[in-house]
Every structure is written in structure tokens, then in C-alpha cells.
Specification:
Helix content is 26%, strand content 26%. It is an alpha+beta fold. A 5-stranded antiparallel β-sheet has the order 3-4-8-6-7.
Length: 360
């Protein structure tokens, strides 16, 4: 099923009798049951006002097209949407609707927030075939329940998006990265926390292959000044090196691409990074890299291993690995949260036709 208009999308969902699998550009296998419904036919920029920093775009629009339109005006999606194709070994075309549905957010989340924090409005079709609009096309709008935030990260289980409105931001003039090699998890979290706690406006903090890396962005003179001052602050942690770093590789976890095994995404408090890394390594052979200043761990491990038994806080989602009932892809929710989630799905998809079983 490939609807080419919002009304056609609503008719399709209203008339289905069995569950459907909702897809954007097909870059991820959502492991949903039923016939595939793709939003690729809902494509194009509806409204772009560079001066107002707002963009309205149909959900099936390729992410590359969105980024090209913004780049022509010196602007960008500041939350750095991830591209998991290399990691997952898939092809397809990332779409803006898929980005929002998964709340895909990269290293800059520590400074500007996640994808959902840049959403101004959304239009979607719920599981009963109703067209729903929430939010607006400007930064200041109050419209009751914040369904905009609810749809971001729902993985298509509450509704199929037809259009999204986003806040965009200018591209920086300059980028600089400072790195310190040879740090263990405890040393790395101390260095990253020090950088993030400084007044130098860090926009990325990651730990890859034993090196702690921090990123600075902005006007050229400002970046140069802040780089030199931050290097002095970080000097006690080891030899500080200024270098060019491909942060898209950090964003997309390309260090694990092509390597055998399952990949997990573990969200924790940054302060819990050292003990969590020790626990994961103590339970078996793993490779670990960290993003978001230690608040996000990416873990490569043997296929079929459930990492959740090794962590005592946070939550773990299996991003790559065979789909089995033995290991749930999403972290089991506490009873109270699970009840709320069930209630939301009953409200927005009472027939259970949208990506059934994807999130439990």
C-alpha cells in the first residue's frame, strides 16, 4: 500500500481488516505483522520559511532532500538525525517521518535536545482512520495535549504521520574537536563531564576506542577561543589533541558496521557509565562506545545475548539482531508505564492494526 495523499492514507487505514506494517523508506525492519504500508508516496516540502526557522514537510520525504533544501539556506536539522543503514546492513532511503517516528537523535542532543524537541506540529492518521492535527507551524503555539511529543518515538504504533513541522537552526561557521586517547570508562566520563560542565558550549561528547572526544561549534573566532581554553581545562586528564573527527561516524555507530553480533542501545545516567561498562564487560566479551556524554552506550556482543541481565539501571534496546520472542527488542516497561502505554494504544489504535507487536 502506497498512499499518495493524506485522504488516501486515511481511507486505507480505515478499511483494513488485518494489521499492517508501517514503513517510511525501508531502512529498518520494524518486525511488524501484516501487509506493508509505506509513506514514500507522501513526499515534498509543503512550506519553508528560512527567516522564521520553520519547515513543513510531508512524512515520506527523503531525509537527504530535506537536508539539501536546508543547506541551500545555510540551515540544518540541529538534532543530527541518525542513519542506521551501515550498522544494520540495510539499504532503503531514510525519510523525515521515519526520523520522527523513531525520535532519531545524534550527538548534539546533549546541547539542543532530541528530535521531539524540534517538532512544532504533526498531522497523522490514527488506527481508526481519523486525520488528526496537533501543534502548528510556528514556534509559539499552545494547542492542548502535546501529541507532537507523543508521536515522536512511538515507532508508528499510535498513528501514521502524513506531515511534520520542524524548527531548524543555522549551520555553524566552524567546528573543532578535542580528544584525549587512552582513557578508561571512569577517566572518560570525568573528562566529558568536565567539558560539559564548562562554559564553552560543547555540542558533542563521545568515547570511542578509548578516546574521549568533545566537539565545539559556532563562529570561527569563538570556536578558536573556546577550543584553546577547553584544552587547558582538559589537560589534567591527558594529552589533549585538536583534530578533525567525522561525527557522523559516531552518530551512526559505524565502528560496529559489518562486524558480526548483536548491537544494543543502552540509555543510562552518565554517572553510571563506569559501573555499567564494568558490568557488561564482566558478563562477556563486548565492544562499547559512548555518546551523549556517557548517557548512551552502544554495545556490540555475541548474537543472542540478552544484555539486560547485566545492567542495574537505565534501559536497553536491541537495535540489531534476530527477532525472537526470547529477547524483546524494547526494554520491558514497569507495570504503571505499561498500563499507560496500553491505554494510549487503545485510544489511538483500538483495533490494533498499526505496527502490532513492535513495542509490546
Amino acid at each position: 500500500m502506497v498512499p499518495t495523499s493524506e485522504d488516501e492514507l486515511a481511507d486505507m487505514i480505515r478499511n483494513v481488516a488485518d494489521p499492517i506494517a508501517v514503513r517510511g523508506g525501508g531502512t529498518r525492519d520494524v518486525f511488524a505483522r501484516g501487509e506493508v504500508l509505506t509513506t514514500s508516496g507522501l513526499s515534498g516540502v509543503t512550506l519553508y520559511e528560512p527567516g522564521a526557522l520553520t519547515l513543513v514537510v510531508q512524512a515520506g520525504t527523503p531525509l537527504s532532500e530535506v537536508e539539501a533544501v536546508l543547506a541551500a539556506e545555510g540551515q540544518r536539522l540541529a538534532f543530527e538525525p541518525t542513519d542506521m543503514r551501515a550498522l544494520l546492513g540495510t539499504d532503503g532511503t531514510p525519510t523525515i517521518g521515519g526520523v520522527v517516528a523513531t525520535n532519531a537523535s545524534g550527538p548534539r542532543r546533549i546541547q539542543v535536545g532530541a528530535c521531539r524537541d524540534h517538532l512544532l506540529g504533526v498531522r497523522f492518521v490514527d488506527g481508526a482512520g481519523n486525520i488528526i492535527k496537533n501543534g502548528g507551524r510556528v514556534m509559539k503555539n499552545v494547542t492542548g495535549y502535546d501529541l507532537v511529543k507523543l508521536l515522536a518515538g512511538a515507532h508508528g504504533t499510535l498513528g501514521v504521520m502524513s506531515e511534520v513541522s520542524l524548527k531548524v537552526l543555522p549551520m555553524p561557521q566552524a567546528v573543532a574537536t578535542l580528544s584525549i586517547a587512552g582513557l578508561d570508562a571512569e577517566q572518560a566520563i570525568a573528562a566529558m563531564s568536565t567539558a560539559l560542565g564548562s562554559p564553552y558550549d560543547v555540542t558533542g561528547a563521545a568515547w570511542v576506542d578509548g578516546a574521549a572526544m568533545v566537539r565545539l561549534e559556532g563562529f570561527s573566532d569563538s570556536v578558536s577561543y573556546r577550543r584553546d581554553r577547553l584544552a587547558e581545562v582538559l589537560a589534567p586528564f591527558g594529552a589533549v589533541k585538536a583534530e578533525e573527527v567525522d561525527w557522523s561516524a559516531v552518530r551512526d555507530v559505524r565502528a560496529f558496521a559489518g562486524q558480526p553480533g548483536d548491537v544494543w542501545r543502552v540509555s543510562i545516567r552518565p554517572s553510571a557509565m563506569p559501573v555499567t561498562v564494568a558490568a557488561l564487560r564482566g558478563a562477556g566479551d563486548v565492544q562499547i562506545m559512548a555518546d551523549w556524554g556517557g548517557g548512551l552506550l552502544w554495545v556490540l556482543c555475541d548474537a543472542g545475548r540478552d544484555l539486560r541481565s547485566s545492567i542495574t539501571s537505565g534501559h536497553a534496546q536491541r537495535v540489531r539482531g534476530a527477532n525472537t520472542d526470547a529477547i524483546l527488542r524494547f526494554h520491558p516497561e514497569p507495570a504503571a508505564i505499561a498500563a499507560l502505554s496500553h491505554g494510549l494504544r487503545q485510544r489511538f489504535d483500538p483495533r490494533g492494526v498499526l505496527n502490532a507487536g513492535v513495542m509490546g
